[in-house]
Structure formats: C-alpha cells, structure tokens
Design brief:
Layout lengths: L2 H12 L5 H8 L3 H7 L7 H10 L4 H29 L4 H13 E3 L4 E5 L2 H14 L7 E8 L6 H12 L10 E3 L6 H4 L7 E6 L2 H15 L15
Parallel strand pairs: 3-4
Antiparallel strand pairs: 1-2, 2-5, 3-5
Length: 233
C-alpha cells in the first residue's frame, strides 16, 4: 500500500472536501485507489456544496452521496440507541467494557480499536466484546508495537499476545518495531516487557453501540460521536 499517498488522500478528502477525481489527479494515483482509501470519510454539507459549485456535472452524483450519508448516519444512531438500551439492563461486564473503551479506546466512527500494554486489560476487553457481540475470531485484527530491544523476541511476543487474546496467528497484522536514538537507548530498554498491543474490530454497529452505552452510563449526550469529529476525544 502507498501509505504516504493514502494519508494525503484522506487529508484532502476529510479537511478540504476534494472529490475522488481531484485527489487522484493531485496525487497521480488511480481513482479506484482513492475511492478505496477514503470510502469511510463522509463529506460535510458545506463540503458537498463547495464540491457541487466546483463541479456542476456532479450534481446528480452528489444527491446520491447525500442520501447514502444520511442513511449511514441513521444506522449509526440506531446502533447508539441499542447501546443505550443494553446499558439500562445494568450488566456489570457491559458497563466495565464500555467504560474501559471510553478511557483507553480510539474514538473512530467505524471500528472499535483498543490498545494497551497490560495483558489482563486486553484479555478483559476481548472478553467483553465476545460476550456482547457476535464476533468470529477471523474478524479481529491484532497489531503489536514493540521497542527495539524486543526485536530478537518479536515472534515470542506476538505469540504471547495471541495467546492472551485466544486468537489465531491469522489475526496478526505486521508489527511495528521502534528504533531508539542513542540518547534514549538506555532509558527505554525493557520498560514494557511485551510492548503494546492493539485489538481492532472493523464494525460500525459495535463501536456506535459502545458510544451509545457510554453516554447512557455517563448521563450525557455527545452528538459529535455519531460522526467522530476530531474534537471528540
């Protein structure tokens, strides 16, 4: 994957509201690649209007985009309402899992991502997901973030996290091994024996369910979580 081009494409789409064709031309990549890279980014009303003004020929397509965006938002709201209903049942495991995600999870719109260096915490979080959502093992993705002194034990550490999560190696994505500068080498060595692990499930309904439950447990409303704007940390 062209990582730099992908990140730039997502920036141009999310911040500047550019069309797939505009991004493809700017980055000299195919429109199919751009379409895949930015498929989860919905344009705001203002961005859609600006795009319509720049490209009048796209008016018909933009109507379809708005309809699909409204439908997707409705589904996210429905998932949040389901999370609120489950929260009212008072299940301790559900409450603890949602609160843990509120504290440590990545706030994205379409995926539940949870990272930590504590094996017990990671094991608890996946137990919560398995107990409350119908998730086949093959849908989980595991990523390890390792320090330089872990390199010789990379396979061992990856297997440790997979055992902790009771997942097959097919769920593992490519790990990252961070290199140290000379000034930090001695300070950082062996600080975290197993680095950190990130567990991801790409499922809009699951993460929006959790958002809805968090709001119900916490007694507040956070409308931006439906769209996961940058300010929703």
């Amino acid at each position: 994957m062209k990582t730099a081009e992908r990140e730039q494409a997502r920036l141009l789409r999310r911040v500047h509201g550019q069309s797939v064709k505009e991004i493809a031309a700017a980055l000299d990549v195919s429109t199919s690649s751009v379409s895949y890279w930015v498929r989860d980014i919905e344009l705001t009303r203002e961005q859609l209007e600006a795009l319509r003004v720049r490209n009048p020929a796209l008016n018909g397509q933009l109507v379809g985009v708005r309809v699909r965006a409204a439908r997707a938002r409705s589904l996210r709201l429905r998932a949040q309402e389901e999370g609120r209903r489950v929260a009212l049942r008072g299940d301790p495991l559900h409450a603890a899992g949602c609160m843990l995600f509120w504290a440590e999870g990545s706030k994205t719109r379409n995926a539940a991502k949870f990272s930590n260096s504590d094996p017990s915490m990671m094991a608890f979080f996946i137990r919560f997901l398995r107990a409350h959502f119908d998730i086949a093992d093959g849908r989980f993705r595991v990523w390890c973030n390792l320090h330089a002194d872990h390199a010789v034990r990379q396979r061992q550490i990856e297997d440790f996290w997979l055992r902790t999560l009771a997942l097959p190696r097919s769920c593992l994505t490519k790990s990252t091994v961070n290199l140290y500068s000379r000034s930090t080498l001695r300070k950082r060595t062996n600080m975290l024996p197993y680095g950190t692990c990130r567990l991801t499930v790409h499922d809009t309904a699951i993460v929006q369910h959790i958002y809805g439950a968090i709001q119900e447990y916490g007694g507040f409303d956070r409308e931006e979580w439906v769209d996961c704007l940058p300010r929703a940390s």
